[in-house]
Design goal:
The complex is a heterotrimer. By secondary structure, chain A is of the alpha+beta class. Chain C is about 20% helix and about 35% strand. Classes of the chains: A alpha+beta, B mainly beta, C alpha+beta.
């Protein structure tokens, strides 16, 4: 026996032959395999498990399941420490180290329990009223105090060492919950051959079935549950998942579930994830989620030892643990009697069953026959005790005291609320049932149906029939043949007496409604008095139902008390809506693999390793990694960039340009298609030639630019900027599929088919000619500027484009991906005698800024072709996308900011992108700004910092003048001279080498 | 999460698609007025209820899929290819909205 | 003149190793040629007949020499069954007047996933229903797997999948699939066609 309250027999979920050792707040205990932390602690008579959120009142577990509001603990230590978990669902494993939270210095002597003495001031809206002024105190002072005193546990501070993963599922019928209704539904659906998934939150099936009292199909209920599970497990069309919580019900019958794969062990088994998040696409859903018992609202009803009636039964039946030696049961429905019988069978002393109802109650007679005292018309008045219950005062409905009775456990039942969380997530507002005293699901909006206690069938026999019918209904609704249906499992029908509405047992003390957020009956009354009458307002003002349990045990009572205060019926008050997740889900589970190196996929070019070998520092460009610069030993970033950009203009450089978007375009109308996409004309472009093109968006602003070549009459090859590759392809698909399906044009991405390098600089031709030998004539005649050739090189097809971004004699060479390394090596080798260096994106940028070529910084979605100085490219002989909108008054306004160059006039300091240009640096503001700096670099060719900028009035108005580039972030305002953006070789003579 | 029935690929998850907005707008002829282009480019209704939208199937066949969808309930009534004509349903969306 | 040696996007395939487990088999299939084939507007069925390309979405057509996966109306991804330098030009020749051919031999790598837990492995990243009642031999689809676009082709009635992944994403995808396969145990092979 492990513990003074462990019963000598019973406990369907524990394995008595396997003892488990664990600690709670540093003290060692033992339990059995199959125990939860709560059941193992109760077995040792430990009822104090936590301190409440606001008042720091001592608390024990109220429930035996995931709806637990009180017994919130930290599990594990070190990197795996996990706060805010529920002791009632934490499965015991050997070596578990658990601790209480929200107490200091210890659980028994919590300093902040003085909050109780302050409680008259800690009522609803306390924070709103108290910490209002002065506002600047909020962050540094108030928030820190509140956070420390509020009952939130401590998360581990290091990175989570475990892995989480995602998984996807499809099924005909998803059954949520493996209680009797869920099992019956899964069986009836599975027997038709439908693909069934059955998900159960707990480690074992059976739900709320009473293993001591209930019989199904003539056998003890636990036996029936085992045989049903075995039957389902043997069917190939059924997937059973336990320890799996369906926490979200989303659009189009997509549901999400969390599988706790390794939460019940100390560390996950090797290579196994800790948790797995499932996305389930279910044709039909059966919601057999059961119901939540409510507490009774009486003074000190939060005393450790006060527990829901069903929870007391669950501890006895599942774990062979009694929460007390002498139990008083207070009930307003038949559930209390069930608990009395179960306790009696387990040999536990039931001192009294106090039923709020009067009149004939058949269930009472059965209990009396066992010699148990039953009183009707009697309510709990006040629980007595220090850290745990020692007695209970009882009263009549009119508040008159009857007697005080010694006990160490009070089992309470305030009736049952069907668990309508998931159905509420689908947008169905639940309906009030006046006889059941609970909200039941309304007509479904999704492909679901509820069964069992979840729809208000509290009778076991009804649960089974319900579930059976729901399973068959789901199969039918999924459009599958139901064949010959199996018979529904049967249980004898018990006569039940309806519950009596008792929302507040008379009293003036603290009677808790929402245990987790410390909301009392008085708070709800107060909220109403202060004008928070709508249920949504009262919820937010009191925080009722806003804790992580989402008010599973408290919402209905809260609404009923609000209705009483308003003098209205409960349906007129309405409910708030439940939202996913049903119970808390770790962020790690949502992230799955997508963290660290797998946060997002990385795209590498074919010659990534060539760059690596030469010491490249890589930069992320979208998902691509590109060499940014190649520092030599001891060289800083700026020096490397300076050296690379200088060297390219003196000898030659090679740069990986594989990341440019590449699109192959075919078809008789390909030229016409390009004419409509680009602002310039394409039909006259001869095969074997390339052309620079500029695209607008439909609104007339510049979208993207690039070079497109004509490889054959009906075959073009387009390049896009790296950043816009996907957008341009989508834009073209829109154009061809939606706008002009009549054009004969076909295209696809070829970005990854080709590896591309640019070779630029005066020695570029020499180097390539050496690399190609006789495979290609590189003379100016054979390959003039903007010429394109396809040839065979190194045993593979290669394409060469004589185009230049740097303004130097330059070529881009493409070979198939697999040949990229061979190409790089061949060129590299040939370049050794000609001063070839590798250069990265930074030097690439310096070279293009020196030439005044626009790139991403200038293509910012707010600029027109004319703003960039490319207005003359716009053809008026043909229509193209954006043409009409680009002609609007504001788009052609002479006062628009246009592209200019800037030179830093000062020898110290630097230019920065984002700076604003003003005439008077002491009067710099939004009104006086004349434009902004887009790209900057230190130019070796010009010998100073230079930049590109958009400037109102442009070169025409400001050429040669001095402005100031104001950057308040750095408190800088250097003087700059406005000049042409063509800083270097304005006539373009260097293109010929 | 939406499930969208691509006319080519079949029913797929929402994540495979890029929402591309209003599919009721028809691009004017190139010689149409500036106003007509202004309307095409900028003017959008924001209907509560049935709406025809573009969902570009970038993760699948890369077709522009036309989708008649209820903006309130998210119910998808019909889907079609880029040139399909999909009338709005007369019925209310399932779920009573 | 030197011939360039082909380098696989996953690098030296002999260096790729499993963990010795038996749940999953990952085979890097290489040496194939491939192309995207487009029909000229209005010539879809003529091209399909000429090249023997199936036109049912989601269904691959297999011949002695090639596998064709319909990827969009009038568009196919076609893969050779063995290394054949003339494969793409042969397709272009046959398509003349009816279609166009874009060489894509180097665009994608192929990872064949098989083994007793192949379907389970796929469920960790693939959002499609690969249940045997829904997907058998010849099933094909384009769909993101984990975060990477994949062209999937089921090559057997058993759970054996050829996954074609863009070369740039090859290493990221390999990282994901091997990391995910660790829970089942996996072997790695390569197969040169």
């Amino acid at each position: 026996m492990t513990g003074i309250n462990r019963l000598s027999m019973g406990g369907t979920r524990i394995n008595r032959s396997k003892q488990i050792n664990f600690t709670f707040d540093g003290k060692s205990y033992s339990g059995f395999e199959g125990d939860t932390l709560a059941s193992a602690l109760l077995a040792h008579g430990v009822t104090l498990m936590g301190r409440s959120f606001k008042y720091h009142r001592p608390r024990g577990c109220l429930t035996a399941g995931s709806e637990e509001p009180n017994a919130i603990v930290e599990l594990r230590i070190g990197v795996r420490r996990e706060p805010n978990t529920r002791a009632t669902i934490a499965e015991l494993y050997d070596g578990l180290e658990a601790s209480s939270q929200n107490r200091w210095p210890s659980l028994k002597f919590d300093v902040q329990s003085v909050n109780q003495l302050l409680s008259p001031w800690l009522t609803a809206g306390f924070y709103y009223k108290t910490f209002m002024w002065p506002a600047k105190f909020w962050e540094p002072i108030y928030e820190k105090i509140i956070r420390r005193s509020a009952g939130l546990g401590r998360a581990a501070v290091e990175a989570d060492p475990d892995t989480y993963e995602h998984s996807h599922a499809h099924c005909d019928v998803l059954v949520v919950g493996a209680g009797p209704a869920g099992l019956a539904a899964a069986l009836s659906a599975a027997h038709t051959g439908a693909r069934v998934m059955l998900m159960e939150e707990q480690a074992a099936a059976g739900g709320m079935v009473s293993t001591l009292l209930d019989e199904i199909d003539g056998m003890p209920a636990s036996e029936w549950v085992d045989s049903a599970m075995a039957e389902l497990a043997a069917m190939s069309n059924v997937t059973i998942m336990t320890r799996t919580t369906v926490f979200g019900y989303y659009d189009h019958n997509v549901l999400a579930a969390l599988e706790r794969v390794n939460d019940h062990v100390s560390t996950p088994q090797e290579n196994q994830p800790r948790q797995r998040m499932w996305t389930i696409r279910a044709k039909e859903v059966v919601l057999a989620c059961g119901s939540h018992e409510r507490a009774l609202t009486f003074d000190n009803n939060d005393m450790p030892g006060v527990m829901l009636s069903c929870a007391v039964r669950a501890f006895v039946e599942r774990f062979g643990v009694t929460p007390g030696k002498r139990v008083v049961i207070c009930t307003n429905n038949d559930d209390g009697y069930k608990t009395a019988l179960a306790l009696n069978m387990a040999g536990v002393d039931v001192a009294l069953v106090a039923d709020a109802r009067i009149g004939s109650i058949p269930a009472a007679n059965e209990v009396r026959a066992k010699g148990i005292r039953v009183e009707t018309g009697m309510l709990p008045q006040k629980a007595h005790g220090a850290h745990t219950t020692s007695a209970l005062s009882l009263q009549r409905a009119d508040g008159s005291f009857v007697e005080k009775i010694d006990c160490d456990c009070i089992a309470v039942s305030g009736g049952y609320s069907p668990d309508v969380h998931l159905v509420s997530q689908t947008g169905v507002a639940p309906l009030w049932d006046d006889e059941l005293l609970g909200f039941v699901p309304d007509i479904p909006k999704r492909r679901e149906r509820s069964a069992g206690a979840g729809k208000g069938s509290f009778n076991l026999s009804a649960c089974l029939t319900d579930g059976h019918d729901a399973g068959l209904d789901a199969v039918k609704a999924a459009g599958l043949k139901s064949g010959k249906a199996s018979a529904a499992p049967k249980a004898s029908r018990v006569e039940m007496t309806p519950p009596l509405a008792v929302w507040r047992c008379p009293g003036n003390g603290k009677a808790f409604v929402d245990f987790q957020n410390d909301v009392t009956a008085k708070d709800i009354h107060l909220a109403h008095q202060e004008g928070f009458k709508s249920v949504e307002h009262a919820k937010r003002y009191t925080t009722l139902g806003m804790a992580t349990d989402q008010g599973k045990t408290s919402n209905v009572t809260g609404i009923a008390l609000l209705a009483t205060a308003r003098g209205e019926a409960i349906p007129d008050v309405g409910t708030t809506r439940f939202r996913p997740p049903y119970s808390p889900v770790a962020i790690g589970a949502f992230a799955g693999h997508e963290r660290g190196m797998e946060f997002q996929p990385v795209r590498r070019t074919a010659i990534h390793e060539c760059g690596e070998k030469l010491g490249a520092v890589f930069v992320e460009t979208g998902q691509w990694l590109r060499p940014q610069y190649y520092p030599k030993p001891g060289e800083g970033v700026m020096e490397a960039i300076y050296r690379e950009s200088k060297q390219v203009r003196e000898t030659a450089g090679i740069c990986d340009v594989s990341t440019l978007g590449k699109i192959e375009i075919f078809g008789e109308d390909a030229g016409e298609f390009l004419n409509r996409l680009y602002i310039n004309g394409w039909k006259m472009l001869a095969p074997g030639k390339a052309r620079y093109g500029l695209m607008l968006r439909e609104d007339g602003y510049v979208f993207d630019d690039g070079t497109t070549s004509r490889l054959a009459d009906d075959h073009y090859f387009m390049t896009t900027t790296t950043a816009n590759a996907a957008r341009v392809l989508a834009h073209m698909e829109h154009a061809s599929q939606v706008l002009w399906p009549d054009l004969d044009v076909q295209f696809c991405s070829a970005t990854e088919q080709w590896c591309g390098v640019a070779v630029a600089g005066p020695n570029a031709r020499k180097i390539l000619q050496a690399a190609f030998y006789d495979d290609l004539d590189m003379s100016d005649e054979a390959l003039p500027f903007m010429g394109v050739r396809t040839f065979t090189w190194g045993g593979t097809t290669a394409r060469i484009f004589r185009i230049s971004f740097s303004g130097e004699l330059a070529f881009e060479v493409n070979v198939p991906w697999s040949m990229g390394e061979g190409m790089w090596n061949a060129i590299w080798e040939a370049g050794q005698d000609h001063g070839l260096i590798p250069y990265g994106t930074e030097a690439l940028s310096v070279l293009r800024i020196e030439k005044g070529h626009v790139a991403g910084n200038e293509l910012d979605g707010r600029t027109t072709a004319a703003d960039m100085g490319l207005g003359k490219m716009m053809s008026y002989k043909k229509p193209f996308i954006g043409q009409k909108m680009a002609a609007r008054e504001g788009m052609v306004d002479a006062g628009r900011a246009t592209l200019v160059g800037l030179k830093l006039k000062e020898t110290e300091g630097r230019l920065r992108g984002g700076a604003h240009l003003v005439v008077d640096k002491d009067n710099a503001n939004a009104e006086t700004s004349l434009g902004w700096v887009t790209s900057v670099c230190y130019s070796p060719a010009v010998g100073c910092w230079i930049g590109l900028a958009y400037l109102k009035g442009g070169l025409g108005k400001f050429e040669g003048q001095t402005l100031y580039a104001v950057n308040p972030l750095y408190d800088e305002a250097p003087a700059v001279e406005v000049c042409s953006a063509h800083f270097f070789d304005p006539k373009g003579e260097r293109l010929n080498g | 999460m939406h499930r969208i029935d691509c006319p080519w690929c079949g029913e797929r998850d929402e994540v495979e698609f890029q929402y591309q907005g209003d599919a009721t707008k028809v691009r004017p002829k190139p010689d149409a007025s500036e106003d007509a282009f202004f309307d095409y480019t900028y003017q959008r209704d924001n209907p509560k209820g049935w709406h025809t939208e573009w969902w570009h199937h970038v993760g699948g066949c890369r077709q522009w899929v036309k989708v008649v969808r209820n903006t309130l309930t998210h119910e998808v009534h019909k889907t079609g290819g880029p040139q399909s004509k999909l009338p709005l349903p007369r019925r209310k969306a399932e779920g009573g909205l | 003149m030197a011939d360039f040696a082909a380098i696989h996007p996953l690098g030296d395939l002999d260096q790729l190793q499993g963990d010795g487990g038996e749940g999953i088999s990952l085979t890097v299939v290489h040496g194939f040629q491939s192309a995207q084939v487009f029909a000229v507007s209005g010539k879809e069925s003529a091209l399909a007949n000429k090249l023997k390309l199936g036109t049912t979405p989601g269904v691959a057509t297999d011949s002695r020499t090639m596998t064709a996966l319909p990827v969009s109306p009038g568009q196919w991804m076609v893969f050779s069954k063995k290394q054949d330098g003339a494969f793409v030009s042969m397709l272009a020749k046959k398509s003349n007047g009816l279609g166009h051919v874009s060489e894509q031999s180097d665009s994608r790598i192929c990872v064949r996933v098989s083994g007793p837990q192949a379907r389970e492995l796929m469920s960790r990243g693939c959002r499609l229903d690969l249940h045997k009642s829904k997907a058998g031999k010849g099933f094909c689809a384009q769909t993101p797997t984990a975060q990477v676009g994949v062209l999937l082709h089921q090559v057997d009635d058993a759970a054996v999948y050829d996954l074609y992944v863009y070369s740039g994403f090859a290493r990221s995808f390999w990282h994901w699939i091997t990391h995910t396969a660790e829970q089942f145990g996996y072997r790695v092979n390569s197969l040169r066609l």
